[in-house]
Amino acid sequence: MVALSDEDALIQRSIEGDHAAFAQLVERYAGAVFNLAYRMLGNAQEAEDASQEIFLKVYANLARFDRERKFSTWLLSIGSNYCIDRLRRRRFAWLTLDDTVLTIPNPGKGPEHSAIEREERDAVQRALLRLPPAYREVAVLRYWHDLSYEEIVQALGLPESTIKTRLHRARRMLADALRSEGVVQEEMPLQE
Question: How far is CA 115 from the centre of its chain?
Fold first, then answer.
């Protein structure tokens, strides 16, 4: 008999109706799901609502989870698809940034440095929100969740060539947007 990993055991117990086990899975992945939703949707409150909906979808579909896949990849694919659907339902294209996301300042840096970092982070978020949803989706999965190309292919069900093309275009669009905002002055390299 093969011993189940801690995560596999939590999944199995959740499928069997153990709500405490599912709560542990939620606790384990809440940050990653919120981060994905926030990067995709651009608003903290909407990301919080989306995170709850994503976990409801995960719970409802847990029995169909393919144990050969990585759970986090499957979870983030559900999250990504949910966010794309939510973006499609929107009637407007742009959102303002929600400043309620808290960051812990580095005590070794002065307020001027912190302000510059915050401005740069906000500029990156604005640039990310200007990307078409398909490009934003792959950029968030690759750069914020550090998924490999293979994991993105599994999560989105797209050919690797499509993923690479979208990432290349997303990097180009992000570089152009950051240049136009004055965040970067020279040509940014487009390689990873």
Answer: 25
Task: Say how many C-beta atoms besides its own lie within 10 A of residue 13's C-beta.
Answer: 17
Q: How many CA atoms lie within 13 A of 101 on its CB side?
A: 19
The CA-to-CA distance between both ends of the chain, in Å, stands at: 42
Domains of the chain: 6-180 (1.10.1740.10)
Long-range contacts of 149-155, Cβ-Cβ distance < 8 Å, separation of 24 or more: 151/70, 151/73, 154/69, 154/70, 154/73, 154/74, 154/77, 155/73, 155/74, 155/76, 155/77, 155/80
**pLDDT, tens digit (0-9, with 9 covering 90-100), for 118-143:** 787 788 888 888 899 899 989 988 88
Q: Is 76 exposed, middle or buried (0-12, 13-18, 19+ CB in 10 A)?
A: buried
What torsion do the CA atoms of 162, 143, 36, 5 make, to the nearest 10 degrees? 90
